[in-house]
User: What shape does this take?
Amino acid sequence: MTQQVGEVNAGLLWKQKHLSPLPVPTGEPASDVLGMIWRKNDTYMDVGSISLSAGWVTLYSMTLVIVCTVIYSITQGLYIAALMISMGSTVLMGFLWKGYIKAYRRALMPPLRFHRQRREVRIVTPEGEEWTVPWERVHAIAPSATMIGQFGAAKMGGLLLWFPYKDQIDEPFHMNKEGWTIMVSPGPGIAAMRQWECIRSFMEVGPEAVPEACPVPNGHLGIWESFVDDMRSGFREGKWARTIFWDGLFSFFFNAFVLDYLTRKKFAVIPDLTSPESIAWSQSLPPEQWAKRSPELEAAIAEREKDLEAAATAKLASSSEPVDL
Assistant: This one.
């Protein structure tokens, strides 16, 4: 049976919430957590799915810890231990870094193009196959899982976008059904909903409701200028601890300057849809030809907005209640 928005599937250490269809408001502000918005105008928005940060932070921090361990072993006269650690870690980290470099050098995939006037999504595979999917047939799922290890429990999550193949548009969806998917990792729960809200708001509200396209934050500034600008912004907003430890020490400890350089180089040229069919499909339409919401979605959005308004009113009332002393 096709899952609908709001449905939750859960197990012992995992949960997945369905955000669409139907694409109703999540109640969260639109936030492009991963820089997925590659291109945006009044007609369509291009969304990409590559993120270099997580892999870089993980591999660089592991390498740093290993190097520090080897240096400490040498200073303590543990030369054999240092040699063994060096040999084992070189094999392991070499394999991991090779995979990261291979992924980095791979050409950017064509973006997903969301056409708000047609209310359709254009999919172009790296092999050149193309088709369109009705907006209200897009499935958005926010999976999360709790990982338990020797240092405690950590919650991980992401956003999964599922699109039916062109010859299966009208077939019902289920969790084991094959389709064209994109999986990104903005984080569990609220972070995933905010990332999805970027796409949903563009299609249902308009381009002014979502952030500007910015796959490289502060890309108009130099790398050092971008760092200084982030620090100044954090201090102006009064976020002293976050700015000092996250934006400041984080940048040096994980060598975020090199990551910034690699990201800028990677996104120097963002791919476009170039086939005649996609170019024609991407054109603007006269207002009278714009596609309309389905009656089901209209009713679902109205009901959801009432629920959000009621929740906001109840929250305001509870916060304004007098406290007995």
The mean pLDDT is 86. The first strand starts at residue 8 and ends at 10. The first helix runs from residue 53 to 75. The two ends are 54 Å apart (CA to CA).
